[in-house]
Specification:
Blueprint lengths: L3 E12 L2 E10 L3 E6 L2 H13 L6 E6 L2 E3 L1 H11 E4 L11 H7 L6 H11 L2 H9 L15 H14 L4 E5 L7 H16 L3 E5 L3 H7 L2 E6 L2 E6 L6 H7 L19 E9 L6 E6 L3 E5 L4 H11 L6 E6 L2 E3 L1 H4 L7 E4 L16 H13 L5 H12 L5 H4 L8 H15 L3 E5 L7 H16 L3 E6 L3 H6 L3 H6 E3 L2
Parallel strand pairs: 3-8, 3-9, 6-7, 7-8, 13-18, 13-19, 16-17, 17-18
Antiparallel strand pairs: 1-2, 1-4, 4-5, 9-10, 11-12, 11-14, 14-15
Helix pairs in contact: 3-4, 6-7, 12-13, 12-15, 15-16
Amino acid sequence: MKEEVIRVEHGCFRREDLSYRFDISISRGECVGVYVDDHLSSGTAYLEVFKGGTRIKSGRAFTCGRRVGMPELERWLQQNSVIIDKHRFDSTELTMGDFVISLGKLAGWRQRKRAEQRLRGPESAAVLRQMELDAAPDVKLAELSMLDYYRLCVFRVWFWRGGLLILDRLTEILRQRDLEKMMRCVQLLLGQGAAVILLDLDDMFMRRYSDRIDVVKNRKTCYRLYPEEYGEQLYEILGWKCRSGGVEPGGRQGGGRVVLQASGLELPGIPPLDFQIQSDEIAFLRDENYSTAARLRDCLLGGQRWNGGTFHLDGTAYAPGELSRLIGTEIGIQLERPDRPGGVLFGNLSALDNLSICLLPKAGRSIADWRVMENILEEASRWFPREDLQRPLYTWPLPQRLRFSYYKWYLLNPRLLICFFPFAGQEPAHHEMIIDLLVTCAERGMAIWVISSGIDAICEKTKNEAFLRRLRYIN
């Protein structure tokens, strides 16, 4: 029997006035997948336990087979667990060696000297070769690719003999081929006796690499499934049907008009952007660490300026300050969570009122408002139950609110729809719905600009040929 690393029975904590109950059990050399029904709430709360940002109020805890109190458990997690997520350690000065040694837990200069000798020794060199991390210890951290940075994080866990590694949503950050390389490093770490937790919404990824999958629903660990149960039972719990096979995303040779053209567009801190997007096309811009998305949102929504270059919409050049008057009419902005503060929906208003706010101004004064309202209600009733359309949006379940947010753009029909990380934090059950809605909007003639960390795994799963034909990578 493998040595147990950590176990929490009936753990309970509170976050944002909500109560969470969870169970953890993981041994050395074991990889456990954790699937949450809502990563932006339950998943974030689950991670906060390991980050030390949430105090566990009750439950029984064990570390390395020994019963411990909650304060001792929290100290153990701080000292022995490492989280790898989309937040990269940002430094232009630190080298790989600094990252491994200086940021480690050192007791004094003697321990540091021994660590430096071990880092340059044959054992470390052999592990670095196995991880295909060829960079020397004096290479700057900022020069590493995202994949190499993650490999270095795994190596650091191996170097300091960390007991627990948590990987948060790697499938939304890395390309499929890079994901496989990364997981080879993780397998090496497992072979050295570390324990690994995968928090992800990609069930195929977790099925492939996990010894067990724990399912968190309604803020509670409610299912614990083993490989022999990964079939229909897992899909029934997750709420979607298994699809076999994959499709490589193909490039589409468009014939529509050019809606957006960016020429030498310089956003602060990122290389210049040069591309164009045609009508009825879905263009994908990869953004590994949210830097491009953050800069672009500042320019579109925050009144910030770009450093240089041009932004043409339907042949007209616009300055940053001029774009604000186009937002919500000629340019649609679809955020990760459309119903959060700063999103595109008003939760206290009915769905019908949400549509009327944006569509009535387009109708003009020559048409009676009541007639427009009737037309909106009749059209929207083809998509949603009539009685639901007259209820406040906050009473709608998340999948329907998400679908409604895209439907709003479908009716408004802006020339350009910019989607920031549309698949991030969404269940796989909703991925196909989002894909269908993107295609529906593109078929109306919109130019769709998707900015996300990666959609390779989603493209491999989908059977929507129209989406794959329209999809084009622009970096």
